[in-house]
Amino acid sequence: MYLNPEEEKMFNGEYGDTVRKSMEILVALGDIYEAEHLVDISSAQISGVSYKTIGDAGLEYLEDLATDKTAKAKVPSTLNPAGTDLDNWKKLGFSHTFVNNQNKIVDAYGSLGISKTCTCTPYLVGNVPRFKDHVAWSESSAVTYVNSVIGARTNREGGPGALAAAICGKTPMYAYHIEENRIATHLIELEDEISKIEYGALGYIVGNDVGDGVPYFILKNKKDNKPNNNDLKSLGAALASSGAVTLYHIEGETPEYKIADYKSVPNDKIYISKLDIKEIFEKLTTSSKNKADLVCLGCPHASIEEIEEIANLVKSKKIANDLWICTSINIKASADRMNYTKIIENAGGHLVCDTCMVVAPIEDLGYETIGVNSAKAANYIPSMCGLEVIYDEVKNLIKFK
Ligand code: F3S
Fold this sequence. Notes:
This protein has about 400 residues and is α/β, with parallel strands linked by helices. It is built from 15 helices and 14 strands.
């Protein structure tokens, strides 16, 4: 891969050890994927934050990088969810030892100049690239969002690759950074209108079918029932969890659908009915109980509109399950000001920041059955947490006293 003179200096260690190690990672990735050169990025989003998922090996790796005090991220960069709410961990039941290790990880990222905002929806809290910007993001649901809904360009980076890109301000130019790789590979035609809760199940079906392809959706929804940003974040999260979808297009909705060239898609046409979608709710529900111990919402992290809806549902009532709504500290600040936090807490629920039901060690908190409204969470919880799942709409999951 070609390096310009400045990149050569970075590679040769003239800017310190951490920049050198980061350039080595980028060059190795570039060689593997046959990139011809690097490209400047405008932002990074870095996974590999929860102590539950990266453990002591990950912590040591980050602390080693952070010993070089001259190395700082060159572009605005945010973190994926950590393993706990960094402020309110005690009342949620997390152990002191776990939190201690988690804080060391977040601090190491912080000393590398990465914002300590831990969220999988950075596009809701200021990490918002522009159309056609090159970026290096690694959380799969955020990757599909930024590629498909915003029209920026990223591959699905691993955590170390995204961190290296943040430190160098560059990433190898291959795959989804190149226009011709962004055309559709599969045509997905819906037979009926779909409702808000069904976007996740739809994504789960299509991700399974297309793997790492680029689906092009033709929806049947009428003008007054078009998908909003919350629907698109659910769709993308599920597409990237049952499959490895990095980019999708929706006719008339997403910014690049006109260049998606779906007419050249060979014979890969998939029809999806209401019945197909209904079956996914049954398939992903592993529990035979009708009441979850913990209802855990916000996968991907909840927007202020989603929190408002839940606040309206539970207002002046008492919830019979435990209830967590996972979000970022930034969105919680808005919810505090709008009084939604108080309404939810009065009903017995919590807004939980910085973490989520998959990367937090909820299996250590005494729960057996988790209720979720996210196909991605339903898909991952049995393997990542070893717990039973009920996958349903919020109004069916939350039980009242
Ligand atoms: Fe985000 Fe956790 Fe879901 S990282 S997309 S809330 S599994």
